[in-house]
Design brief:
Layout lengths: L1 E2 L3 E3 L8 H6 L10 E4 L8 E4 L2 E4 H7 L1 H13 L5 E8 L5 E3 L3 H13 L19 E5 L3 E7 L2 H9 L7 H9 L2 H14 L2 H34 L2 H8 L6 E2 L94 H13 L5 H5 L2 E6 L4 E4 L5 E13 L5 E4 L7 H7 L13 E2 L5 E3 L7 E7 L6 E2 L6 E8 L2 E4 L4 E3 L5 E4 L5 E4 L2 E7 L3
Parallel strand pairs: 2-10
Antiparallel strand pairs: 1-22, 2-3, 3-6, 4-5, 6-13, 7-14, 8-12, 8-13, 9-11, 9-13, 15-16, 16-17, 17-24, 18-23, 19-22, 19-24, 20-21, 20-23
Length: 520
């Protein structure tokens, strides 16, 4: 096993406090958006080999059979097929969609034949892979996922009472559903930019009004708490140095104060790193779950306690299976009507004034995850993460088609070939306990599998041997990882290790580990 030294990507939408809080480092005042763990060529983790740090990508290339094992090598070639991240969003990411495997291969081959440089700003397919992904919330996590039913989207837009939206409302009400969503998205993204900017501004102002005083109060409370973020982080704990990558590209402009993350009060006994935070421990602090709040099995993990105050979600309704995101019970954002969604759209417009993606976003479901809940994003599903701290795992591909909320290239024609215009409620995934107590997030993806281990202090060590490579990430406590030779590593929050296939391994001590491996 190898302790990983990881890179932080400072995209402009990142939080200035969330990753420093997790890692126990001093905030720099600059956004820190993503902590990358894996062998992605643009920012591979580093491991200590031959007494010097080496990129994990080079280590794998030098001996792929030893580092990946025959299963992964035969299925995916000489590369680690997944990338693990901690994502810390304080502002909306771009509205985007990922291609399926066939379209990714066709698009890549076409752009290669045309001689388009792989780093060209108008390139859609820098590689031939698809990019399914799963995000699991560590704090309350907010995003957009999949299309609303056309009638519901029409209702939401009509309530804004904006003349420029009337044609879209009429289409959504009169046309068959999939055709209506396609026609409206096409019209929005191809509209005259000056004209659509006026409509966006009017729609944003109306959304702000319809969000109501409750949403305003929530934002004001976040602003007030954010004033103390840096001082609180200094008091939480000491931790490892985080590697900062100063020249990583900005994904979105940053125009408002960072209010997405509020660390827990240092004296709050519910803090995930407090020994008494684990349910079942002597003197443990326990509260009844709010309506609709996840209660993971077998016992709530340290990071299941929300880090900041937030309204509870309504109890999840039942519904038909979502063809592109799994089998768990769906949950839509609470509405009064649509108050939280309107607040989210107004916030998006503040970050991206005049962007037609603001109207496109209004066609999508708004969802808020509680800690421990997850979303799976398959091919063709439009989505955007808005704010929160989460663990994300994905196939190691860079193929992204953007729909808006970005200054980057938007290829409308290619986008329409990839997007699935199948309305469905966002489906929230909850971990399923395996017989040995590991909590697994099942997905159809072959490139990755994510699970969570909640380790009670004093419990017997647990073996984690696997025929595929693994990355273990600590998000709470200080668990110990012991190899077959007796070598032991203690992990702090935000620290991780790489484990070769079939390497005997045991974990013990109190804490929470996320385990990333390959599903083949």
């Amino acid at each position: 096993m190898d302790r990983l030294e990881n890179t932080i990507r400072p995209y402009a939408w990142g939080s200035t406090t969330a990753l420093p809080w997790l890692l126990g480092t001093e905030p720099t005042g600059e956004p820190q958006a993503e902590l990358w763990m894996g062998a992605h060529p643009s920012a591979p983790s580093r491991v200590l080999r031959d007494a010097e740090p080496r990129p994990l990508s080079e280590v794998i290339a030098a001996d792929p059979e030893r580092e990946l094992g025959p299963r992964v090598l035969n299925a995916f070639g000489p590369r680690l097929p997944f990338l693990l991240k901690v994502l810390a969003a304080a502002a909306p990411l771009s509205l985007q969609v990922h291609p399926d495997r066939e379209r990714a291969r066709e698009g890549f081959e076409d752009e290669e034949r045309r001689g388009l440089p792989r780093d060209a700003p108008d390139r859609n397919y820098p590689d031939s892979g698809h990019k399914p992904e799963l995000v699991c919330a560590l704090t309350e996590f907010e995003g957009l996922c999949g299309f609303r039913p056309a009638a519901e989207a029409a209702e939401l837009l009509a309530a804004l009472n904006v003349d420029g939206l009337t044609p879209y409302v009429d289409i959504l009400r009169a046309t068959p559903e999939r055709g209506a969503l396609r026609e409206v998205l096409t019209a929005v993204l191809t509209a005259d930019r000056a004209e659509i900017a006026v409509t966006v501004a009017e729609a944003a102002a109306a959304a702000e009004r319809l969000a109501g005083p409750a949403a305003d109060g929530e934002r004001e409370a976040e602003d007030a708490r954010a004033v103390d973020d840096v001082d609180e982080v200094r008091d939480v704990r000491d931790g490892p140095e985080a590697r900062h990558l100063p020249d990583a590209p900005d994904e979105t402009p940053r125009t408002t104060a960072d209010t997405a993350f509020v660390p827990p009060d240092p004296v709050d006994p519910r803090r995930p790193d407090a020994p008494e935070a684990w349910p079942g421990a002597p003197g443990a602090f326990r509260t009844a779950p709010a309506p609709g709040e996840i209660t993971p099995a077998p016992a709530g993990p340290p990071d299941a306690v929300p880090f900041g105050a937030s309204p509870p979600l309504a109890a999840p309704p039942t519904g038909e299976a979502d063809p592109h995101s799994g089998e768990a019970t769906p949950r839509t954002a609470p509405t009064a009507p649509h108050a939280r969604a309107y607040a989210a759209y107004a916030d998006i417009a503040r970050h991206h004034p005049g962007d037609p993606g603001v109207i496109a976003a209004m066609l999508l479901n708004h969802v808020r995850l509680q800690p421990g809940e997850a979303l799976y994003l398959g091919a063709g599903v439009p989505h955007a993460y808005l704010r929160g701290l989460g663990v994300e795992i994905m196939a190691s591909s860079d193929n992204v088609l953007r729909c808006g909320l970005t200054p980057k290239h938007v290829d409308v024609a290619e986008l329409l070939r990839v997007v699935r215009f199948d309305p469905a409620p966002p489906r929230v995934r909850r971990p399923e306990a395996t017989p040995d107590g590991e909590e697994r997030y099942d997905t159809p993806a072959e490139e990755f599998r994510l699970s969570r281990l909640v380790l009670a202090p004093g419990a017997a060590p647990r073996e984690l041997r696997a025929p595929t490579p693994q990355i273990l990430l600590c998000t709470a406590g200080s668990p110990r990882v012991t190899g077959a030779d007796g070598a032991e590593l203690t992990l702090g929050r935000g620290q991780s290790v790489y484990v070769r296939p079939d390497e005997p391994l045991a974990v013990s001590g109190g804490g929470t580990l996320f385990r990333a491996t390959v599903a083949v």
